[in-house]
Amino acid sequence: TIPQIALLGNGQLFAVWSATPKKAAPGKVFGAFSDDNGKTWSAPKLLMSDAARLMADPNILVDGNRVLVQA
Known about the structure:
It contains no helices and six strands. The protein has strands at 4-7, 13-19, 28-34, 45-49, 59-63, 66-70. The protein is globular and about 40 Å long.
């Protein structure tokens, strides 16, 4: 999917994206952080996975110090 990127209050960039294996409906949502305006990124972390639901097109909502990811 198309990644979503948000600027956090601490200056980091936060990116989320989904990955769906071929011939498999449920996907997984991953996220990564950048401390240098996107030049480099942390290793991806699995954020969401649910075998009963399709995980696709995640979005980010930043509300002060809270960061919410919806897929």
